[in-house]
Specification:
Blueprint: E1 7-11, E2 14-17, E3 21-26, H1 33-38, E4 42-48, H2 57-67, E5 70-75, H3 81-99, H4 113-133
Antiparallel strand pairs: 1-2, 3-4, 4-5
Length: 139
């Protein structure tokens, strides 16, 4: 399967062809001597969410609200450009999937009666323990 055949899947309504991703390459930083200075293994992948094909409009609105209109991922952890490209595509796909996860709102809860009673009982016990430590001064 060639790169142009691949699809970035953020969910059922978000199937973006990898041809929508634009690439920039440069030398990766850090040690490595002549190889690191001469080879362009650092990868910067850019995906324009506002105009990318394969995204339904309601999903596009959610993605743009959470991620912005342009996604940019930079990878330089591997020595080869090919592996960095694969890693960048995986990161983009993961970010798309995480952005489309619907968060359930938290419903505030009250403590149960038994836990309130237990807490108050422990407070009373601690108070009595400390009160018993006090010295009584007789006049």
């Amino acid at each position: 399967m060639t790169e142009s055949d691949q699809i970035l899947s953020g969910g059922p309504k978000c199937q973006i062809p990898t041809s929508e991703v634009s690439w920039n390459f440069g030398p990766s930083g850090g040690p490595g001597g002549q190889h690191a200075n001469r080879s362009n293994t650092r990868v910067e992948a850019t995906l324009d969410l506002a105009s990318a094909q394969g995204i339904e409009e309601n999903v596009r609105e959610v993605l743009v609200a959470k991620l912005g209109s342009v996604m940019r991922v930079t990878v330089d952890q591997h020595r080869s450009q090919f592996r960095n490209r694969e890693s960048a595509l995986k990161r983009i796909e993961l970010q798309l999937q995480e952005a489309l996860i619907k968060e359930t709102p938290r419903r505030p809860t009250k403590p149960k009666r038994s836990s309130v009673e237990r807490r108050l009982k422990n407070k009373r016990k601690q108070s009595e323990r400390k009160a018993n430590r006090r010295q009584v001064w007789d006049d």
